Amino acid sequence: MRKQEHARTITDTVNKLTQYDDVKILCNQHHEGEPKPSWHILREITELCRALIFPGYFGNSKIDSDTLKYHLGVTTEQLYRMLTEQILAGICSTRTESPVDIAKEHENAAGKAAEFIASLPEMRRILATDVIAAYNGDPAAESYEEVIFCYPAIRAISNYRMAHKLIELGVPLIPRIISELAHSETGIDIHPAARIGEYFTIDHGTGVVIGATAIIGNNVKLYQGVTLGAKSFPLDENGNPIKGIPRHPIIKDNVIIYSNATILGRITIGEGATIGGNIWVTEDVAPGEQITQIKAKQRTSENR
């Protein structure tokens, strides 16, 4: 008797779960021949990129000057194949028309994968500046090797720079998954659409949030818990948020923002400014200005 009751419960639940009106926005329907994005494969792709950018640190640890070209060539070929498939998966997952022209979109994906690979030398150059910034900015760092191997900021910033390039190439969905891989591993949340300059570093890092329309200049340092967020966003006539408008801060060159500071809205933090810890900033900060909790309270009182 109990088995019959359990069977009816399961059948009723399946019927409820398969009501299309309830499931249509949560169910990613598969069409024949279309690949699906894979967190597992995208994690492999980020590791292949790391092996190309930091040879000997990641991937094959026995690389030397004699074998470098061979190993990087094999890794690049593998990256090209896997990235092409995942870019295609992103395209298929975000297209509304069905079915997708697989042959055409595969060629499109292969072209974007090749362009991404062509960007790796420049990406490596920029990431080298991030490694230098992390090393110079932390008296506890004893070597570049320690920074590359151990610092969560380098992992998060590496994923960001990979994902940002894919955003620039017009790749849907995949960049966000790559950034979320780093978010889940490090607690650092950098939207791939943010624009970040050279010599960027995040000390400790946990809890840092950088929004999609944030712009960060060169030689900027953030500490743990910093938020570069949106104060509010306008709604359309249907009450839905309007997408794509600038709503996050602009951080100029040579700025330091200390732990748990919250910078909100499309404001500008001027070049060389310093923002103290545990502060809520919603107005422009002049170049070279130092904002402490006392000054922040004075600003609030003056504007009342």
From TrEMBL:
The keyword Membrane does not apply. SUPFAM superfamilies: Trimeric LpxA-like enzymes (SSF51161). GO terms for biological process: amino acid biosynthetic process. It comes from Candidatus Caccoplasma merdipullorum. GO terms for molecular function: acyltransferase activity. This is Serine acetyltransferase. Keywords: Acyltransferase, Amino-acid biosynthesis, Transferase. The keyword Transferase applies. CDD domains: LbH_SAT.
